[in-house]
Amino acid sequence: MISPYVRRLRLAGELRSLRASKGLTHEQLAKRIGQSRAQISRLENGHVADQDDVMRILEALGVDDQRWTDIMTIAREAGERGWWESNKAMGERQALYANLEAGATSIREFQMTFIPGLLQTPEFTKARIDAEKTPGARLGYTPEKAVEARLGRQRMLRRPGGPTYHLVLDELAVRRRTAPDEVVKAQLYHMAATVNGSSKFTIQVLPVAAEIAGYNVPRSAFSIYDFRDALDPTVVAVDNLTEDMVLTDSDPVRLYEELFDQLAAAALSPQESLDLLIDATRGRPYAHGA
Predict the structure, then answer these.
(1) Could you give the CA distance from residue 261 to residue 250 in angstroms, rounded to a whole number?
(2) Rounded to 5 degrees, what are φ and ψ at 265?
(3) Among 85, 100, 165, 193, whose CB has the most other CB atoms within 10 angstroms?
(4) Cα(61)–Cα(76) distance, rounded to whole angstroms?
């Protein structure tokens, strides 16, 4: 499977590189293919994947043979529609994550406040939606469809050939009550059962008392996505209050990869983390090293 979103990013990079190699401005290339400068900008920013325009650009720039075939394949895949397209009511933010997950070979995630969507039970998801409702405000999604979409993303994660998933979870997300007690207890049991004995799922809990190398305390939750094609960019999605910031440039991506490694090194081992989750469901504090 592929991520159309990531393919659009890859297509954008290929087109920018080709135009720059010919020394052309956006306006000059647009004039050559009879399009607007804005359309060239949209293509080079990964917002659209118009195959007809891509074909005309390649012709104008003298691209042929295997290079032409490779870029047109990327353009075709960039325009594909995933299962999330038929569930618009799931919300744009969740659709973005579903798109990234569709083509990923590995997902590394740090969560500091909540159980992440890929491991949520339907009851926990519903409780969080209820908690986040603001009187008079538009949610941007339909609660029932959002729950369905969470389950769809989880099925895609478990599919044959699906990505590996490595989660570093702040202990606060385990200890703080973000839903009714019975919902949280069932949620923690679900997480423990999901990762126990699994080669695809890894959970490490980052204790509140953990000392991170260089005291490099994370400022927000984030996810890192790797893809099968080595030329596709590694993508980092940073979770903010109202929207998600997507990073693909190598320098900021590298910083987040280094931060994730530091968090994983400071966290409990997978077995210790499993023990902590089980103890938390029983209302017992976890005694590290006991």
Answers:
(1) 16
(2) -70, -30
(3) 165
(4) 19
Question: What's residue 197's pLDDT?
Answer: 85
Contact 276, 174 (CB under 8 A): yes
Please tell me the distance from the alpha carbon of residue 215 to that of residue 66, in angstroms, as a whole number.
49
The whole model's pTM is what?
0.90
Across 112-150, b (16+ Cβ under 10 Å) vs e yields: bebbbbbbbbebbbbbbbeeeeeeeeeeebbbebbbbbb
Instruction: Count the residues in the chain.
Output: 290
Instruction: Provide the pLDDT for residue 137.
Output: 55
**Banded pLDDT at 206 (limits 50, 70, 90):** very high
Q: Is the pLDDT of residue 290 over 50?
A: no
Which phi and psi (to 5°) does residue 23 adopt?
70, 30
Can you tell me whether residue 217 is helix, strand or coil? coil
